[in-house]
Amino acid sequence: MEIKLSIIIVNWNTKNLLKDCLNSIFDNSPSFKFEVIVVDNASTDGSPQMVTDYFSFVKLISNDSNKGFSYANNRGIERSIGQYILLLNSDTVVFKKALENMISFMDNNPEAGAVGCRLLMSDGTIQPYIFGDDPTLLCLLKRNIRKLLRLGDFHNWEDPSSSPFIPPLPRGDTEGLKRGWGDLR
Fold it and tell me: Cβ distance 176 to 101 under 8 Å?
């Protein structure tokens, strides 16, 4: 059976978060065949050893130095063989049916080249920003100026009519890509 999904996780010194992430993937495994590739950016916290000890079936790529997030994702993509690619942050917890719903959307929408999953806070509320909160003073100023001018917020993340798996704009923690769609480098 062909591998349907390659999950690529870049790690740098997030051993405990990575372990939780990997456990959530395998605790909520989809019905289709998938692979997990962890690309470690020269961690010093024992992350590679944890992957080897607890998840020996995961492909581990250990970089000699931290050459950055994009470089590491590209190394994982080069080694992947799945029909779809999921770039997943190590601090992510995958919920039941999330992977199946994402792949179902991609299979049923051949015109789609990428998908972003809804991000939730630990209490289950929607995470409106990549960093959990507005990351900069400039962003806060822009946001409040828009509100003062009654232009509204940047995005309506609370819109109940939006799909639970496809937010208005893809955000940074999870991005599913169709192999061969665009240039990933």
Answer: no
